Amino acid sequence: MTTQLLMPERRLSLDIPTGRGLRKVVEVSSKKIHPAFVFAGDELLPAAAHYQGVADNLLRGDWWNRRRVFVTSPRDGDGKTCTAFNLAWALSSRDQSVLLLELNFARPQFRAVLGDLRIWHGIECALRGSAKPADSVFSMEAYGLNVCAVRDATPFSQLKQPLFRLSAFLDWCSQKYDWLVLDCPPVLSKEWNHWHREYASPALMVVREQQTTLIETRKASKILGDNLKGVLLNDSVANDAAH
Amino acid sequence: MQTTPLLARLNALPLRHKLIAAAISLAAILASLVLTRSLPHAYASSALLSFDAQAAQPGEQSAGEPAKARAESILSDGALSKLANQLGMFRADSQNRQAAQFRAHLTLSTVPGSKLRVTWRDDKSAQAQAATNAVANLLGSWVPAPVLGRNPSSSAPSPPPQAPKTTITPELRQQSGDLRGSIDQLKARHKALLSDEDQLLPQLNRADRKLVALDAEQHRLAGIVQQAKAERQQQMNARQPTETKLAAAQKNLEDLRARYTEAYPDVQAAKDQVAELAAQLAALPAARALPQADQAHLDATTKEIGDVRSERGRLLQSLEDDQTLDKTLRDRLEVLELSIPSATPDSAQIASPPSHAQQEQVQNQAAAKFALTNFANAAKTVPTGRNPFQILERAGAAQPVDGGRLLLEWLGIAAGIVLGFLYLAFALWWFRVVQGVATLEKFVSAEVAYVGAIPRMVR
Fold first, then answer.
1. Cβ(A131)–Cβ(A178) under 8 Å?
2. How many CB atoms lie within 10 A of CB B251?
3. Chain A interface, mutation test: which of B2, B7, B17, B434, most A Cβ atoms within 10 Å?
4. Three-state SS sequence of B9-61
């Protein structure tokens, strides 16, 4: 918070589709955006450098050949959303088009962390067929970062049909963008157990130091199985980045 | 290795385990409370009596606790058995067994200042109070039986001279006859008095028991009435804000109606608001009426307690009067018995020389005169003729003596808390948190890449 208060206020332009090919530019104050997002503050902060390092590691490996990253964690509160945003920002800063997708339909957070942003169409609208896929994606012009957020929280019981179309939707996204970063629900949520095992590949699991339990980490890695390709330690007290 | 603060680890523990720990603690505490509450209650009631130390006999004084020694001698097996029968206790047992049972509940303890405390422990409150008062009454009303022909102690002032076996003049014979007649009258009166006392004691015990029962009933009814009043107040408090809002909404509606027609939107909105508030008010529970029957019963019980107390006071006064009269009669009887000369047959008159006979006659006459005129003074000098006990404080309502139960309850509470913490400690061990890459490597497959760490940001 201190960092945020010291930073001069900036205005971030968001280009939001309103439907039928029309778009509207909305300006959001950087003070309204969650302070953990490096693009909301100073990109030169140490955290920004660490996310760049993580992006370097991702680009170095060959397991991300589908250029998709399913960011997940054993449970809520481990820092998935923050990691997904910052990782997408780090990838987009390499002149690559990146689409950040929100898949946590039950507890969406993208709109809230962007200062209660109003959007016309969410990813659930595109999956239901009530909006075109392109109308559910808004972009942050300054960073070349594209976001596809959930507009209204939707319980899992109402997602059976839309999830059926998720694969086709992701294929469309892959054609349009270089990288897809997907903010997923926690692995240990009962409803999403099966989905993670079937579809979340390749997965990057975020673990918060001194909060996530070892037993949950083991359970989550078992559920993800071969889909789990990488682990990121969040909120690390010791500097393990060089490990 | 860096140690995780316990608070942070506790915070990271899943909520369900905290709830389970709380549930274990609560269950253990409740179980211990239920168990200890199911144990029988113990009540103690005590009365205080004063003891006249001067009335103690030499043997009792050497015992160290003369009051206790005297009380134990008064509370013989027979006396205790009779008392137990009056109170309706241990009826199925034999006399000795009855007395032993009675003694098991009874505690006599000396209190500094020549006082004796009589304590009765029982699992019934009313019975404890009644038994304590019965024992106190027995000790307070006890008067030692006169010892005929007993020599007064050396400290007593000039005892009446002992009449030798010698001749009795007609005048002395006449006086002796008069004395015996008086003794017979006094004995008859004393017998009637004892019978009266025997009737008064059970009445007093009955009054005590009734008073205890009425006190308990009054307490119960007062509790019911108090609770009903509190509930009524609570219901009225719950309704009040809605009633106030409804009144304000109705006034607003009246004002709007004065200015606009019914079709005006504000009037419609106000009507809707009034209807909604009325529905809310109707949904709230109506204020409960005070329990008139319980209140009337309480008043009646209070009045009855007053009546029983006044009746008990009257009985106590009668008993004290009887005890005073009893003591006086015993004193008189003892003095009169002592003052009667030992009679010998008239034929023995021949054996005595005249000069000596004259001297003895003078002595006998003096003894009879002393006895008749100074019996009150003589009574004070006879130590065995006085009641050493006097009731200072009668037993009130029996108090629960549950020290052991309280200890058990606290132990149960402590055990519950300890069990909860033990579960928490186990859960903390089971749910160890990630503490760096080294711990992660043990739990994640070696094929999974470690892509980096994001340091904690100081915010």
1. no
2. 12
3. B434
4. HHHHCCHHHHHHHHHHHHHHHHHHHHHHHHCCCCEEEEEEEEECHHHCCHHHH
Neighboring chain A residues of B454 at a CB cutoff of 8 Å: 47, 50-51, 54, 79, 83, 86, 232-236, 241
| CA distances (Å), origin A1, targets A7, A31, A234, B458 | 10, 10, 18, 8
Q: Decide: helix, strand or coil at residue B164.
A: coil
Q: How large a percentage of chain A has pLDDT more than 70?
A: 91
Q: A74: cis peptide before it, omega within 30°?
A: no
Lowest-confidence region among A31-40, A112-121, A213-222, B40-49: A31-40
- pLDDT tens column, B157-199: 434 444 444 455 676 677 677 777 777 877 888 788 888 888 8
B90 vs B83: CA distance, rounded Å? 10
Q: What's the confidence (pLDDT) of residue B344?
A: 40
With a CB cutoff of 8 Å and minimum separation 6, the contacts of A225 are A197
Partner-chain contact A209 B432, CB within 8 Å: no
B118-148 pLDDT, tens digit per residue, is 998 888 888 888 889 889 888 888 776 554 4
- Please give the full DSSP string across B90-129, using - where no structure is assigned: STTS-HHHHHHHHHHHEEEEEETTTEEEEEEEESSHHHHH
Would you place residue B353 in the very low, low, confident or very high pLDDT band (cuts 50, 70, 90)? very low
pLDDT at residue A239, rounded to an integer: 55
Write out chain A residues lying below 8 Å of B16, CB-based: none
pTM over 0.80: no
Please enumerate residues of B whose Cβ is less than 8 A from a Cβ of A. 2, 4, 8-9, 11-12, 14, 430-437, 439-440, 442-445, 448-459
Chains A–B, number of C-beta pairs less than 8 Å apart: 142
Query: What is the distance between the terminal CA atoms of chain B, rounded to a whole angstrom?
Result: 25
Q: Write the DSSP symbol of residue B433.
A: B
**C-beta neighbour count of A132 within 10 angstroms:** 16
| Residue B18 Cα, gap to closest chain A Cα (Å) | 15
| Helix then strand then coil, % of chain B, to nearest 5 | 70, 10, 25
Nearest to B433 among A3, A211, A239 (CB): A211
* Cβ–Cβ gap A210/B459 under 8 Å: no
Most confident of A92-96, A226-230, B50-54, B123-127: A226-230
Select from A81, A59, A61 the least CA-distant residue to A71: A81
Interface test with B, best of A233, A237, A239 (most B CBs within 10 A): A233
Mark yes or no for CB contact A214/B443 under 8 Å. Answer: yes
All residues of chain A having their beta carbon less than 8 Å from the beta carbon of residue B15 are none
Which member of B434, B455, B457 has the closest CB to residue A212? B434
ipTM for the predicted complex: 0.83
What's the mean per-residue pLDDT of chain B?
78
> Any idea what DSSP says for residue B349?
G
Tell me, what's the pLDDT at B121? 85
Distance CA A14, CA B179 (A): 131
Strands A11-19 and A22-29: antiparallel
A230/B451 touch (CB, cutoff 8 Å), yes or no: yes
pLDDT at B145: 58
Selected residue with higher pLDDT from B442 and A131: A131
Report the distance separating Cα B334 and Cα B159, nearest Å: 13
Write out chain B residues lying below 8 Å of A216, CB-based: 431
